[in-house]
Write a structure and sequence with these properties.
alpha/beta; 48% helix; 2 domains; Rossmann fold; seven-stranded mixed β-sheet; globular
Length: 463
Amino acid sequence: MVSHGRLVTGPTFEEMLHPDKIDPRVRKQAVEMSMRDPLDPINLYNITWRSPQGKVYAYVVPQALTNVEAPIVVLYSKDFPTGSHKVGAAYSVLIDKELFGEVDPSVHTLVWPSTGNYGIGGAWVGCRMGFDSLVILPAEMSTERFDRIRSYGARIIATPGCESNVKEIYDKCKELKAADPEKVRILNQFEVFGNYRFHYFVTGNTIVELASELAAQGIGKGRVSAYCSAMGSAGTIAAGDRLKQVWPEHKIVGLEPTQCPTLYNNGYGGHDIQGIGDKHATWIHNVNNMDAIMCIDDVQCKKGLQLLTEEAGWRVLADAGVSQEQVQLMSQTFGISGVCNVLGAIKTAKFFGFGKDDLVVTILTDAIDRYGSVMAQLSTTYGKMGETEARVRLESIFHCQGLDWIMEGTRDARARWHNLKYYTWVEQQGKTIEELNAQRHPEFWLAEQGRIEGIDAKLRAVR
C-alpha cells in the first residue's frame, strides 16, 4: 500500500500504460499480492492491460469462429484486479477527485452508480483506498455481481429494473445526495471524465502499441482499421478517440442491443447484455467521432457465450479447427458483452469490406465468472445445448452475422446523437445548454484529454 497521510494512492496514467515504469519494488510486491491477497491495496498497481512479463492481454480470435478475412483482435480483462477493465475507470475517477480535494476518506461516502462492472470496480477501489462505498445497480443484474460487490466490502442499493433502467439509478443518487449533501459524493461513470481519460489514454495507447507488436508477428500492417465497442457508460469507446488521432481514416463503431436501440432510432426497452445499452446518450461519449452504430441481439450474445464456455461448444469448435489452447482461452475470457463486441466486429469487417491487413479491435470487458446464473437460466429457457445446437449457433450467430441494424455516422446522424444528450443531461441532471453545445467542438475533448498530464504531475507531487 502506498499511503500519504490519509490518502491511499496508486499508479499514474503513464504507469498504467507502461507498468515497467512503476518502482520495481512496488511492482514486484503488487504482482506477488495479486495471488496471495487480491484485496491488498498494493494491487492498485496491477491496473494495466499488460502482464508482469510486459505482454498485452490480447489475442486474435480464430477465423474458424469469425468467418471473416480481417483479423479480429480482442483485449481481455479477466486479469485486472476485479476481472474487468472497469476497475481502471473507477480508479481514474477516484484518484482525480482525491488528488484535487473533492473527496476525503475521513468524511465522504462514495456512491458508485452502475449496471455492474463499474460498481464492482468502485467497490474494490473505493474500499482499498479507505472510503465508505455504496454501489447502486439494477435488481435484475446477475447474482454474481451482487456477491462480488459485497465481498469487496461495499454496501448495495438495488434499484428496480434491468440493464437499461439507468434513470432509476440516477433518481436514487439524487435522493441520497439530497438527504446528506455534505457527506455523499456521487462518482457517476456516465458523467465524470476520469472514465473517459482512462480509456482514451491507457486503453487507446495500449492498442496503438499492440498494432505494432502484432505487425512484427506478421499480423496486420501496424495500424488498426476499426475499433468496436458497445456503449454502457461510453468509457471504453473513448479509446477510439486516441486511435483516430493516430490513424485519421480509422473507424469507430458503437454497439447497442436490438432490444434497446437508443442511438440507432431513439429506441427503448429492456435487454440482457449486461454492461451496455443504458437507454440514453452518456455525457462522456464523443458521439461526433463515431462512424457507425450497429445493433446486436441479446439472446444471440447469451447463446454465443454458452457456445464458447460449455463442453458441447468446445467439441464443435475443435471440429471446426480451433485449437485446444484457443478453445480454453476463449472459454475463460468471454462474457456476454464480449460476445456482443465480437459480433459487432464481425459486422464491421463485413460492412466496410476489410481484408487480411485490416485489424479490427474490440474489448472483452469481463468473463464467464459473472454469468453462471445467466447460463443456467438460459438452459432452463431453451434447453441444454448439445452438439447439434452448438453447430447451429456457430453458423447462425457467428458465421452468418448479417448487415442489418447498421447506421452510418453521417453529419445528420451525429447531430441527432448529440441532441439526444439534452433530455437526460440538461432536463434531468442540471447541465447547461452552453456545456452541451461545447461538446460539439474538438477543443472540448482535447481539453479533457490534456488534463492527464496535470493529474499525473499532481500524483507524483503527492508522492
